[in-house]
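Example record

The entry below shows one chain as it appears in the dataset: sequence first, then structure tokens.
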Amino acid sequence: MTAVLGGLTLNLALGLAIVAIILHTIYLRTGDGRLFLSGQRAALAVSLLSFFATIILTQLLIVSNFDVDYVAHYTSRETPLIYKFTALWAGQSGSLLFWLFILSIYAVVTILQNQRSQLKLMPWVMIVLVTVQLFFLILVNFVANPFMPTEADFVISNGLGLNPLLQNATMAIHPPMLYLGYVGFTVPFAFSIAAMAQKEMDALWMRTVRQWLLFVWLMLSIGVMLGGWWAYQELGWGGYWAWDPVENASFMPWLAGTALLHSIMIQEKKDMLKVWNMVLIIITFTLCIFGTFLTRSGVMSSVHSFTVSSLGPIFLGFVFFILVVSFGLMSRRMKLLRSNKRIESFSSRESGFLFNNVIFIVMCFAVLWGTLFPVISEAVRGTKITVGAPFFNQINIPIGLVLLFLTGVGPLLVWRKTSKQSFIRNFTLPVIAGLVMALVLYLMDIRGYVLISFSLSVFVLTTIVTEFAKGIRSRITVQKENALIAFWQLLRKNRSRYGGYIVHVGIVFMFIGFTGHAFDTEKEFGIKTSESESLSGYTFTLYKIREEERPNHYAYIADIIVEDENGKEIVKLHPEKRIYFHRNPDPERRQPHSELDIYSTMKQDIYSIFNSVDLENGVAYIKIMINPLVNWVWFGGFIFVMGTVVALWPPKKEKK
């Protein structure tokens, strides 16, 4: 009965979405306020019904109601409670309902937040939001219904269970964060369409959009970083980014959104780049929908993607609909979007932002082309060409280094035009610091992109430290504050600027971590109890192979002692080889999974994987990887998030 109620809830939400769109459309023609209120209430009801449907499916997953096909496929009686909850977004139909759930949260917040403001824009904003909701309601009602009953002529006593790769704590956080970012770009898109439709191009709507953009960009950033963390901790290949098609699907809107956040500052300060920013808003949202298409169409093979389904053409049709409507409306408003102001100098901060934008978009296009090329090749020539990590690295490492360079150049430029004297004064110390680092690395026999990356990192860090030092010195001189209070006041008074600098520090630390990949070493071997193997100055001794039965898997555990070159014990590692669904009489249903163990320091990670075990001969097959500087990626990510929070935090209202 509960599943029937869930299906009925989605049916009602679909009908009310159509009603809401019709009411707002008629209101725009007649101006009857009663229609606006009725349409607003219908839009809120659509969201509330979507909440209710999501709660119902979650309850069905938790109680293991195997009469529902989705529950039977993604949970089992042995599945731990937390993973029964996360099964909500583990499958096709559940993830679509979760998309709708997150969008409904944003819709309710947007409507309630703007009940007494943006009154001219809100009818169009609600039309756009509800139209996107309608699209997903059509999918979950007619194409991938999460409440579909199980098709079996017998009582199902247990479900198939959740994929072992998804039974990880990070997967309880990573997808919701990713969805909060992905889905959240709908709101800025809705405001941009509303502004063009109503010919309201003033600064007010742009400020609203900027706050939304910063928040959803932060959520997407956290989601992408958590995805890398999950891959590093769970997949057992020693890396955190493989240029997988679905990874790229989340990275592309992040690149476009980052470009938008930079250029929107120019529009706010100089009333420039309106056309460019509108294009970026449209492209960013379209890439979010396109990324969802890549995940769910089955056209791409990925550890993250869902199975082949009929959703692909529908999503692709919706992408084209968005592009045609958006750019069609934009072409009609081109006169309003054009600005009379122009960039005055190549050496201005405006120019630096624009170059930054161009590089972001070039990287986005490179990732898009590399992702789609195998599909295009198969469609045109009938042969599928694999585009792997070497291609993406070859293209994007140079682009990334240019971006790193521009990260340091931007703060050194001034608005309108940087004079020769200012140019020399601002650049001298950072350039000298970068060149000194390059010389030191060269003498250490380090060459290539590693030398460039580390040198540019020093250049950028020197730039940012210099900017903070200037601000602190100024406050100490003028306000007579001590250094700590001056630093705090600097952040408090100009959160956007100095929060951005902290974000750039985080990015530099992440680049240091990325560059450490060049020094990775690894070794794979079979080893018996009391035997030892060596790698990069460390000795690895297997002293025991243990077995342990747990509620939802059986584990073989390799206990490994790690010693340094002096024979001093560093750590004990305990990688596992797990067998999920081990009690299933059908061997085909048992799922092996390697649960790795990592010893982490800021210098390097010792990464251990238990690949397999030969119990008859007492041999454990182990893979050891030494990954330098990986923790700088996660530490940089933390600084990155903190900087964004500083920039996003609302300023304290001054007392009158």
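Notes for this example: The CA atoms of residues 407 and 460 lie 7 Å apart. The beta strands are 521-528, 532-535, 538-550, 553-563, 569-573, 576-580, 591-595, 597-600, 604-614, 619-628.
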